[in-house]
Amino acid sequence: xxxxxxxxxxxxxxxxxxxxxxxxxxxxxxxxxxxxxxxxxxxxxxxxxxxxxxxxxxxxxxxxxxxxxxxxxxxxxxxxxxxxxxxxxxxxxxxxxxxxxxxxxxxxxxxxxxxxxxxxxxxxxxxxxxxxxxxxxxxxxxxxxxxxxxxxxxxxxxxxxxxxxxxxxxxxxxxxxxxxxxxxxxxxxxxxxxxxxxxxxxxxxxxxxxxxxxxxxxxxxxxxxxxxxxxxxxxxxxxxxxxxxxxxxxxxxxxxxxxxxxxxxxxxxxxxxxxxxxxxxxxxxxxxxxxxxxxxxxxxxxxxxxxxxxxxxxxxxxxxxxxxxxxxxxxxxxxxxxxxxxxxxxxxxxxxxxxxxxxxxxxxxxxxxxxxxxxxxxxxxxxxxxxxxxxxxxxxxxxxxxxxxxxxxxxxxxxxxxxxxxxxxxxxxxxxxxxxxxxxxxxxxxxxxxxxxx
Length: 454
Description:
- Helix content is 74%, strand content 0%.
- The protein has 18 helices and no strands.
């Protein structure tokens, strides 16, 4: 196909020191799974039930969320195969629309894409830790875990990679074991799983659309292999496959896991709660078993923190390589870690942990991530119309239905979110406005950034 894009190739895989493209299909799939399975699935069900007290409708949320993530993964697969450079949305939007749009996506990634999810995972971990040890201060726990994991990834890229792999494998085993134990050991709740007319009405309600914010947040990370596209072997083939396989695996886990939560704990006890995994574990294993499960869930959340802290700074590093005003973010230490990018991201995450509530941060994240994901998926349609001649190693299955389904689902959620939750949505728009101002002031653009496709 030849090189479509120009610019320095970003190094952001686990073993970038010894090889140009060390990430196999298996490794890329693990990256997707590690980024997707985080705080969301263990924390958001109670928030959904608070506004949508229908078990059928809640399970449909997770099915619809999986469909949306699946469609998005297929669209990103086409763009990633066409533009096999690391950076994710930053790379795609810069080339499809304008460098300023790519910069805004990187700016949003700093706050909403990675720092805010880090804060959410840390706050969720603190909730579970406090359930085990009530004397612990939740804020101190949340901040401490961000600092410790950040130091691990600052010391050595290889150390951070091994740390990530161990906790991710443990996380997968935890969820599989939890699902099996829930079906085998728990006393089922007397719930009617066949949908009634009111259940279908709940699926079409504004509360359903708002609850999609929580579900789409839990599914966020389906595009994570795109951030390391430049390091994936045979990226034209393996990047789309990794997005497809990782998303399918996690979607299955999510539907089954939320079924277990509803199957084991009364809806009235789950509604409004964050530590739903702990409540379900207590119902399955009793007090002592629940304590062990809470420990394992904390370890799973550490895996999520680690993956975000590892991947996020590489987007800023790519931006620093392209834009002269941000060159400091591209600097790495002797062992390959982008020091200033890691420090900046962790600092923002700590500020969010100290100043915002879980629900407010979650809604803010959902709005901003959905906005740029929608722009990126729309880019598939834009390029098909503008440049049909470009060789595409992977073409989105089901086009144009696939991007249309994604855009309809995310657009539906965004409209209701603006109407029902204007404050966090307004903060998201303010983040974009501040990013434009910073771009105008600091972003010196080399000629490579102004180039489109040949």
